[in-house]
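not sure who needs this but someone in the group chat was asking about 8-amino-7-oxononanoate synthase from Methylorubrum aminovorans so here u go. i didnt clean anything up, its just raw.
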Amino acid sequence: MTQPSRPQDGRAALASFVTNRLGRTNARPASTEIKAPPANESAQDFEKLTGYRELRLQRSAADLIGLGNPFFRVHETRAGANTRIEGQTYSNYSSYDYLGLNGHPAVSGAARKAIEAFGTSASASRIVAGERPGHLKLERALAAHYRTDACVVLVSGHATNVTAIGAILEAPDVIFHDALIHNSVVTGAQLSGAQRRSFAHNDPAALEKLLEATRHEHRRALIVIEGLYSMDGDAPDLAAFVELKRRYDCWLMVDDAHGLGVLGRTGAGLHEHCGVEAGDVDIWMGTLSKTLSSCGGYICGPSALIEYLKCTAGGFVYSVGMSPPLAAAAEAALTVMQAEPERVERLRRNGNQFLALAKKHGLNTGSSLGLAVIPIIVGDSLKAVTLSDRLFKRGINVQPIIHPAVPERSSRLRFFMTSEHTPEQIAQTVATVAEELSALETGATLIEQLMARRGA
Ligand SMILES: Cc1ncc(COP(=O)(O)O)c(C=O)c1O
């Protein structure tokens, strides 16, 4: 096993380890030259994959300073406001179950009924294997929610963005997206071959400058923003983006993955939060994996768009139809969400309480609105991973988010709130975070600990 020879090597290796585990992109590291292997060696060895040896080295560095691996933990129960891992109970802030609908009797009951009637699989693409009533019911319910003509659901939220954007745009076109947009949007843009231009986060003025300078160079243009941003927990000024898309003749797409069930008085989404008509947005995208406690993604929009995607988008045409119990669960969850706005209100109260207490303790919560997503920004990857590790030892499960998922200096812990957290639990969590962060900042530095362990 290779060990780092200097503390700063250990630190760099560890920072790079956590970076790798959370934020790997498809991009090859810039410094890696692709060389032919020596004549007596084969390149067909998985251990020689770019970054693999580095990954092992980084894991060794983490082991060296006694940090557990915060990723891929096995939960032994339904992970909501609480969870159980290796027999221990934890306060849990790592699930997207914003309204506590995962395991709700109506949601699980709908899934069970669908299994009894249709089994667990749609078996093939819907073009080939045909529809199940649950697909159509879910699509009708989502289209009604956004007041659009139609909707199509796909088996993955990520694949929904990739395939839809890949199918809508072509090389003469352009996509303008928020700098913090989800990876699936960027990947879809790359697939499409369209030009990709990003503008500063939540900054319509920056977008306007870009539009002014470049819109005329392209045929079609798509602007993509999110509802509630998944790293920062803030939201855009939708009206400003609607105004720009009209003025510069663009389509506007909102990825409301984290907005549905969260934003607006009834959790309808970004349009309700901003007091804008849903119909002012051309394409509503979302995922079924968050509030709707299922799995998959959706596009809601004009019938021509939906018909086009159903007949041409690779991720729909060449991929299996949604599993019947997952479609039924999502539809039931949407019904409960709409019937019980008190869940949305509870989530808001919990998020607001967390945010207010965090601010009182002097924690940096960035631009979070205090709803479903609240970051505690600590400033570097190693600190974020160590804080997460210390909190885990004190019964709190929360994930570190580090470079390149976010810039290194804004490495953070990201807390997902649910309507089911209790006020006592939240107060205790924030107090523990403040205590551990303060201990981390005033105690022996991590480098000193590393040196002490190595007898340096
Ligand atoms: C904004 C956004 N869009 C799309 C996705 C992909 O959704 P899924 O995880 O359901 O595939 C995510 C995932 O977290 C997301 O945060």
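also The longest helix spans residues 341-360. if thats useful
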